[in-house]
Amino acid sequence: MPDIRNLVITPQTSANVNVPRATISCTIHDSKTGAQLFDFTGANAVAFPGILSTLTAADRLELLHLILTWLLAKRMGA
Question: What is the three-state SS of 33-60?
Fold first, then answer.
């Protein structure tokens, strides 16, 4: 995949957009032992996009970088 260079993310004011809501439920296991590490089911399930409000500013910037990298790759046809 080509390298992305000179990527600049300039913060703007928040936008109001409609996004799909979802409840994400899963368990996470150690790939070697099979031991359950986390249980995100039932009351521990993750509500999206509500979980975004729990992220720090640095986490939101990291997430934005991941999303932008994916979007740019899609735009290039990758």
Answer: CCCEEEEECHHHCEEECHHHHHCCHHHH
Local structure of 3: helix, strand or coil: coil
Contacts of 57 (CB under 8 A, 6+ apart): none
Give the per-residue pLDDT at 11.
85
Question: Would you kindly state where each structural domain of the chain is located, as residue ranges?
Answer: 22-75
Q: Are 4 and 69 spatial neighbours (Cβ–Cβ below 8 Å)?
A: yes
Q: What is the pTM of this model?
A: 0.71
Alpha carbons 25 and 45: distance in angstroms, whole number: 5
Residue 68 near residue 61, CB atoms below 8 Å: no
